[in-house]
Amino acid sequence: MSAQDGGAAVELTGLTKHYGEVQALTDVSLSLAPGLFLALLGPSGSGKSTLIRCLAGIERPSGGSISIGGQVVADQRTHVPPERRDLAMVFQDFALWPHMSVHDNVRFALRRRRISRGDSHDKAHSMLDRVGLAHKRDRYPHELSGGEQQRVALARALVGEPRLLLFDEPLSSLDASLRERLRIEIGTLVRECGASAVYITHDQGEAFALGDEVGVLQEGNLVQIGTPEEIYRRPAAAFVARFTGLAGSLSGRMLGVEEDALDLAIDAVDGTRRVRVAVPTDQPGRNLEMRAVSSADLAPGAAVEVLIRPTAVRISGPDGTASLVGMVKDVAYCGRGYEYVIELGSGVELTGVFDARRLRRGERCEVELDPQGCLAFGQEEPTAPQPLPFAALPASRQGLASVGSRSEHSAMRATR
Amino acid sequence: MGSGPLSGLEPAAATEATGASVAAPASRAWSLPRLRLPIGLTGVMAVVIGVLLALPIGAFLLVSVAPRLFAQGNSWVTLSAIGEALSGPSLHALADTALVGAGAALLALICALPLALTLQRTNVIGGRLWQFGVWALLLAPSYLVALGWERLFEPDGVLIRAGLNVTAFQKVLYGPIGVILVDGVKGVPFAFLAISAALPGLGSSFEHAARTHGADRLAALRVVVPILAPALWASFAIVFAETISDYGVAATLAHHAKFPMSTFSLYEAVGNEPVQFGLAAGIGWTLVTLVGIALFAQRRAMRGRSYQVLSGRTRPYVRLKLRPAAQVGALLGLSLFFLVALGVPVMGAISASLLKSLGTATHGFTLTFENYTRVINESELYEPLLYSLRLAAITATVVMALSVPAARLLTKRGSGLVGSALDLVLLAAVAVPSIVMAAGYILIWNLPVMHAVGISIYGTTALLTIAYVAGALPNNSRILIGPLAQLHESLLTSARTHGVGNAVAWMRVAVPVLSRYITWVWLYCFSATLLELPISQLLYPASSPPISIAIERRLENYDFAGGTAVEVISVLGLLAVAALVLLGYRLLAPRGWRQVGAAT
Amino acid sequence: MFGPSHRRLLATAAVIGASALGVAACGSSEAKNSSAKQTTSASATDSSAGKETLIVYSAQGYSPNGVKAFEKETGIPAKLVENSTGPLLARIQAEKASPHWGLFWVDGQEPFASLDEQGMLEKSLEVPKLTSLGEKLVPADRSFVPTGITLACAVVYDSKEVASPPTNWQQLTESKYAGKIGMNNPAVSGPTYPCVVGVMSYLGSEAKGKEFFEKLKSNGLKISETNGDTLHLLETGQISIGLIQSSAEIGAAEKVKGLKVAFLPKETVLPSNIGVDANASPVVREEAQKFINWVLSPAGQHQMQIGDPTGDSLFWTVASNTSPLPALPSLSTITTQQVDPYTWGKKEAAINKWFSANIAE
After folding, report:
1. Which residue, A250, B370, B373, C180, is the most exposed by fewest CB within 10 angstroms?
2. CATH class in words for A3-241
3. Do chains A and C touch (3 or more CB pairs under 8 A)?
């Protein structure tokens, strides 16, 4: 293996890891093409740390195999130690050796390249220059700020031109403004050096911004992997949708697939279908009928949950196109405009709704939902749905609200 | 003076302690900003340490330059004693002492580092048991360890009588190497405690960072170990100070090997005819200077660098799972270490006491309990034993109470001039053998002015106990420095923000966190005091001899086997008390207390 | 409401309280001790009898017996600090500003001569009737009184290894004894100093004595700390001849089969002596005189003889009223000499230092 060929392909097959009784990773398989940047997204306890540590060779998998650049580095019989995997890692706590100067920390990673003292010196220096810290090369880690420390860690990881870079939540211990700047630096520098990268985070913004591909982990399972757009538009599970950003959710029952031919054609492209969902209101027998998209084949009458992306919610004018009526509960100025929390009543809310106009707290407003951003998922264990207040329906719709038909009742019965 | 091999029976522990300043850098490096304690504490401890330690030691050291102050000579000011301490045999002994101190400190480090890493960072089988072994080694008096070796390996000792040819090893043992071996092994617990205290602050990512950047396991260790430098330096200084002031080995193995050490010269000057306090005090100065040099070297090595680990988010270390081969290797290594450290001396002491007198010209190899039945039937055994047990318990309890605030002061930053002075005094207390302190106690407390103001406590149990406390305090405080450094400020501040006062916060938060260590401090102090000789010799009240005096008199009267038997009985009594205390802790301490630190 | 300063006070009070408790606890145990027996201070008076406690500093193996019996028989309260001579002298030295001891009872004359010259001993003691040799051991100023005689360095040998013991000092340097002889370091073992200076005195000068010891050294002389250590070497076969105090030798020969004792010409006598603190109260000084009289009485002699039957009790009597224990050979068969403690005492530090540096190392 040599650094000159750029990135290494990474292949995980059936990767499993358990600590005693605790299952940290279950049968995770994925492959990453050379030179790509994979962001692994998951909440704490989802197994993402375990996965990256298995990749690094710090942990030994309980089952499955890992290959890097075509070489099997871990399986039932093999365990290639970290130092022989030709990779580098950036740690959450930076892990700069406190007794070495900044320069020495960076130069350490060149040891395995077996280059001359002078060369390693120059390389370390130019790497530090690239992260803007050449002037602090003789400082000790404790004399640097958090952001500077992480830049040193980045320089240390990059200087040896490894074929695979691993990032273990490198930005989580930095403050928000620094986080964004460093994220951009990481993206740029990694792509410049051409290495493959695996980056774990619990922040979807980070994952979407950095990853050529994004994988989502839940309780040790890789739930979905795909481009950021795929993950956002067609989340494979309610969990993925939730973890990648929601304005709110409504529960209801499946009415059926939308019969519109044009829509069908469009939907066929990304494999989803348009569906109609009846959302019950607090007036018995009165339902709101709404449109959504679903990637699963849901039978009419099935209990569903409609997860609404913030981008699908638009505060509409009084033009009669509104889907729902609510009241501004909270407004947060965010530069480009305002982010609203809109209360529909009975505790049902839509959050993160963007609009350029300024509305006052308590002000009545009408919202429009884009069916493309309303994602219907079947509920595995249907619970009594939280009814939507009938008052949240705009006057134009109140009359249209469907009265439960006999057929629906029988369908419901049938689903019981 | 004393003459038996036991004569200076100074359970290594007795007095010596490396002061705070020695260990503090280690703790300082890893700890978060310090907890705030009552400001008055510094003052109170200054008085306590001043009266208990500074006054008597200072008085004795003053004798070398101003003997007339304490009616010890005619000159008001003279440098002749110090000159004598720096010439001839005393100088030779000083050089030997420095060599042995450095050698033993190095050996202790070499043993303690892998020991701490293995016990704290791997899943080696029997981890708890090995830890217990470390404590047992701490409790074992150094002269017993040395005598154990001698009894086994001396010409016509137990092994030779058993028909083994050990003459080659004998030559090595009876020389600087043997002395360094015994002193170094005795120093391992101190180094182990200091390193163990630093290890939790050293999360796993430093090592992982090295591994992922191309260092193999060994190279990674080479990266990580220097991060422990403050703890390693502190360990070095601790063991160095312990060793140069230890009398137990100096009076036994070193002396028999014709390898003079400073402490021995000092005891000779104090305890032999004619008594030469001036010379003894002069030697005391040289020992203080040696520790000062060690401390200076430590400061120099640390200067300009910081080992502070900024992040509090360090990923906790997951114990390395040893593969079967490594597991076997680790177990073999541990067994070997404890065989050498504990097994040999214990075997030596026990077998010698069982031999039908190391001591008959019949040269037979017969084991017998005769010596035990003989001493057990002697009534003079019980009164001194009970007296010593009682004093040891009181001393241990007082030291336990005082060592927490003392350790607290030692770890505290910026306690100003008073703090630095305390640091120095505790350092001096480590460097000078306890007989110096004992003589100082007589000088101070028997001054006519004391009697004039109605303080006549010389020759009472009270003063003996106070001296025991003073002897044990510096050392025991140091044992607590490490654990105390791990006590994050947030623990106490959070207690205080929830509405309890400082004292209550300490009792409810700090004491539980430290309880395990405090228990061991009690035991360590108890065991060291039970067999303490130098202080006892000079301060014991008439007609109330402690057990160490009883043992010493027995050996003095040529009853070797009987003396050894009494020793073994005392040690058994000590183990019984230790078992009781540990059992009591297990039964009485709330479950939560026991959880804390159990994993480390 | 308690202010912060008050709480601080409480915290420190807790610490002090804990330590005070400890001291109080030991104080109270002390009190119990004292009420049962006596207070330990020399100057404390016995309220019931109007007597003061006589504090005896002694290294003699029979002193515990002796002090107990004295107290019982005379009703004079007495307490004992029993230790080796060295630590006792260190105590006395450290106490110099305000002496605590009343009576000092150890082997050897040099310690007494040294204390006497510092004016620390009561002079003109009353000396009970002694044997003629005993009389010779009383110094002119009567600052100490002999209570028994041992010899500083007789020969103890392993009869299985040594067929016939040496009969004069020069023989000890012969090659047949190479590596077989052991003795103590006078710098550590008090009774060895009279042995060393006895040899010097016998050979005619300090220089000749030193030459002799250097010859012994080149013949493999083994130096130990104490009688016990030298006996240990003998019993474990590391040497076959020991030159130590006669009482220790005779005791060892009693205990261990095969060990025998022999005497060389002009054995230096090593008497046990009693001296009295010059600064003690008149009451204590009077009690100390009574102690001397009692020790040299048949009752006191009996206690000395039963107190340490395989050690210090093996002395030749100086009290004219008592015969030595049967284990002791008659002193008349042995030629003896005395060394002047006032002359040789002054050289003790220098000679010990020389011995440590040149012979012991």
Report:
1. B373
2. alpha beta
3. no
* CATH superfamily placement of domain B20-595: MetI-like (1.10.3720.10)
Please judge whether C18 and B401 are an interchain contact, meaning their C-beta atoms are less than 8 angstroms apart: yes
C253 & C165 share domain: yes
Q: Which residues of C touch B39 (CB under 8 A)?
A: 8
Q: Are residues C292 and C239 in the same domain?
A: no
**Interface test mutation site (partner C, options B1, B273, B409, max chain C beta carbons within 10 A):** B273
Please answer whether residues C64 and C307 qualify as being in contact, where contact means their C-beta atoms are separated by less than 8 angstroms: yes
Chain A's closest residue to B221, CA to CA, is A97
Segment B412-433 shows an average pLDDT of 68
Give me the residue from B213, B313, B314 closest to A108, CB to CB: B213
Condensed to tens digits (0 to 9), the pLDDT of residues B487-531 reads 655 565 555 565 556 666 666 667 776 777 788 888 888 988 888
In chain A, which residues have their Cβ closer than 8 Å to the Cβ of B205?
A: 91-93, 95
- Tell me which of B313 and C282 has the higher pLDDT: C282
Which residue range forms the structural domain that includes residue C213?
154-268+344-360
Q: Inter-chain contact A83–B229, Cβ cutoff 8 Å?
A: no
CA atoms of B548 and B531, how far apart (whole Å): 5
pLDDT at B27 (0 to 100): 35
Give the start-to-end residue ranges of the domains of chain A: 3-241, 246-415
| Distance between first and last Cα of chain A | 59
Judge if C279 and C264 occupy the same domain.
no
- The pLDDT tens digits of the residues spanning C149-202 come to 999 989 999 988 888 889 988 899 988 888 899 999 888 887 899 999 999 999
User: How many structural domains compose chain C?
Assistant: 2
Instruction: Identify the CA nearest to B158 among candidates B343, B341, B6, B349.
Output: B349
Helix-, strand-, coil-residue percentages of chain A, each rounded to 5: 30, 35, 35
C254 in reach of chain B (CB within 8 A): no
Same domain, C128 and C253: no
> Does one domain contain both C160 and C298?
no
Q: What is the ipTM of this complex?
A: 0.78
**B208 vs A: CB within 8 A:** yes
At residue C155, the 3 state secondary structure works out as strand
Regarding whether C214 and C244 lie in a shared domain, the answer is yes
pTM, two decimals, is 0.71
- Are A91 and B208 inside 8 Å of each other by CB? yes
User: Helix (H, G, I), strand (E, B), or coil: what is residue A350?
Assistant: strand
Pairing outcome for strands A248-257 and A71-74 = unpaired
Asked if residue C12 is part of any domain, the answer here is no
* pLDDT at site B217: 80
Residues in chain A within 8 Å Cβ distance of B319: none
Q: Is the pLDDT of residue C135 over 50?
A: yes
